[in-house]
Write a structure and sequence with these properties.
The complex is a heterodimer of chains A (296) and B (158). With 296 residues, chain A is of the alpha+beta class. Chain A folds into 3 domains: 60 residues; 114 residues, Uridine Diphospho-n-acetylenolpyruvylglucosamine Reductase, domain 3, CATH 3.30.465; 103 residues, Enolase-like, domain 1 (2-Layer Sandwich), CATH 3.30.390.50. In chain A, strand 12 and strand 13 form a beta hairpin. Chain A is globular and about 60 Å long. The termini of chain A are far apart. With 158 residues, chain B is an alpha+beta fold. Chain B folds into 2 domains: 75 residues, Roll (Ubiquitin-like (UB roll)), CATH 3.10.20.30; 73 residues, Orthogonal Bundle (DNA polymerase, domain 1). Chain B has a 5-stranded mixed sheet, covered by helices on one side. In chain B, helix 2 crosses helix 5. The radius of gyration of chain B is 15 Å and the shape is globular. Classes of the chains: A alpha+beta (296), B alpha+beta (158). The interface between A and B is medium-sized, with 29 and 30 residues. The structure holds flavin-adenine dinucleotide and FE2/S2 (inorganic) cluster (2 copies). The site of one FE2/S2 (inorganic) cluster has 12 residues of chain B, from loops.
């Protein structure tokens, strides 16, 4: 175990996001990695499992209090949440409670309070694991990620973020600054259900995030994200198309199951089996659509 | 790296490598061994302390991030001669057996009662969900917290 190596790491703070971008860019050009320490709930756990260091350890920059990565604001039709926002801050935010309540519900299911107080959306998106609850919730909102590097700022649609298991289109020198999403009208239906080994401190076996706008029995907006059923967060294109294509009351259970089967490719791992995951994926999707008005 | 922080209400300074875990800094140079290590990876809650009022796992917090911040450990809740209502109730109601989980349980419960003076059982269980106990079966811990909440409310009403 390499916790003893923690003594060798250096940690700095940068006065601004631009200064941070410059440090990361300079090191990146020399082939050196920079760790951005937000809540450390992913990074610190990885250290325990890592082989002992032989070379100079990567530089760690404490981004925990960087102002430009913090804050939650609603401007017109866009809700912007800083990447440094913790799950506990999401839960306590009046504007998130009112306009993106599914994020609040998701946050309450991440680890336990101690993890919620430290873990950030930025860290969840950076790790980009298919088991990440925050990533699935943001996929359901069809959020956009704002990233910045010395080359400038750009936006990545959630649909374009992940390319494979823990692989993403974000470049190594790009810092996640914020996420932006268009909240559905207040009071719109939403869905969050996580299935794990126990209620708290459990990584999802499967979880489903959903947001919808329903007008006259038909979904005019429908976004979902499913956790741990594919190498990337499942956006469920077939299921989305099915739901947006006809009146909710006309959708059958068979159609839902068929669509879900197209959309997920679950595997056996330490937490569950592919068979169980497929079953739960269908059951959760039916449950969500039942709540929207499908007779299934 | 020189680090200044407020520990149990008093200013403290220490010189430490910044990535050293708060847990090790507390139990080592800061001399407070009340905070325990169980899993070392954020799962068990035995290392729970308050960081600016919120419960965190001290095994996942580097000491360098504590610069200018307020830490409360179990030693900050009460003293042997003047136990806090939570500490008193854990003893009276059988909320502690071997005691390994107890400092973390007390801190998580303290964070809860500061925000929610009259928590119902599901709320108590949710607040303690990140703290594992192998001895008590949890029910007595829940009762200890509920009793302490009563005492605190009676005290506040007086
Ligand atoms: C006990 C336990 C339970 C957990 N339960 C859950 C759970 O239920 N659901 C879940 O989804 N996750 C869970 N996690 C995982 C973890 O808490 C989350 O993924 C969390 O969001 C990570 O955020 P962080 O700020 O702690 O990341 P950190 O550990 O600080 O960072 C992780 C990585 O992201 C990079 N990074 C951080 N911020 C940025 C940024 N702004 N831009 C670019 N890169 C960045 C860092 O360089 C690092 O490589 C759990 C972890 C533990 C220890
Ligand atoms: S020792 Fe920190 S959570 Fe277990
Ligand atoms: S009293 Fe022994 S682990 Fe809780």
């Amino acid at each position: 175990m390499s916790l003893a190596d923690l003594h060798f790491f250096k940690m700095t703070r940068e006065p601004s996001l631009d200064a941070l971008c410059a440090v990361v860019a300079e090191r990146h050009a020399q082939g050196l990695a920079t760790i951005l320490y937000a809540g450390g709930t992913d990074w610190m756990v990885e250290q325990e499992m890592r082989a002992p260091l032989h070379d100079e350890p990567p530089l760690v920059v404490d981004i925990g209090r960087m102002g430009e990565l913090r804050g939650i604001s609603l401007a017109g039709d866009s809700l912007r949440i800083g990447a440094g926002t913790t799950y506990l801050e999401l839960e306590r935010s009046a504007v998130v409670q009112a306009r993106a309540p599914m994020l609040v519900r998701m946050a309450k299911d991440v680890g336990a309070v101690q993890i919620q107080a430290r873990g950030t959306l930025g860290g969840n998106l950076a790790t980009a694991s298919p088991a990440a609850d925050g990533v699935a919730a943001l996929a359901a909102y069809d959020a956009t990620i704002v990233v910045k590097s010395a080359r400038g700022e750009r936006r990545i649609a959630m649909a374009d973020l992940q390319t494979g298991y823990k692989k993403s289109t974000r470049a190594a020198d790009e810092i996640i600054v914020a996420v932006e999403l268009a909240p559905p009208p207040e009071g719109s239906p939403w869905y969050w259900r996580k299935v794990g080994a126990r209620r708290a401190q459990a990584i999802s076996k499967v979880a489903l995030a959903g947001v919808a706008v329903v007008e006259n029995g038909t979904a005019t907006r429908f976004g979902v994200g499913m956790v741990s059923v594919a190498p990337v967060t499942a956006r469920m294109a077939t299921t989305r198309a099915l739901v947006l294509g006809k009146a909710l009351a006309e959708i059958t259970a068979e159609e839902i199951d068929h669509a879900v089967d197209q959309d997920v490719t679950p595997i056996d791992d330490v937490r569950s089996t592919g068979e169980y995951r497929s079953h739960v994926a269908r059951a959760l999707t039916r449950d969500l659509l039942r709540q929207l008005g499908a007779r299934v | 790296m020189k680090i200044s922080l407020t520990l149990n209400g008093a200013p403290r300074e220490l010189d430490s490598a910044p990535l050293v875990r708060l847990l090790d800094a507390l139990r080592g140079p800061l001399g407070l061994t009340g905070t325990k290590e169980g899993c070392g990876e954020g799962e068990c809650g035995s290392c729970t302390v308050l960081l600016d009022g919120d419960p965190v796992n001290a095994c996942l917090v580097p000491i360098g991030q504590c610069e200018g911040r307020a830490i409360t450990t179990v030693e900050g809740l009460g003293e042997m001669a003047h136990l806090s209502p939570l500490q008193r109730c854990f003893i009276d109601e059988g909320g502690a057996q071997c005691g390994i989980c107890t400092p973390g349980m007390l801190i998580s419960a303290e964070a809860l009662l500061r925000r929610v003076p009259d928590p119902d059982e599901p709320t108590i269980r949710e607040a303690l969900a990140g703290n594992l106990c192998r001895c008590t079966g949890y029910q007595r811990i829940v009762e200890s917290v509920r009793r302490a909440a009563e005492l605190l409310r009676e005290g506040a009403a007086r």
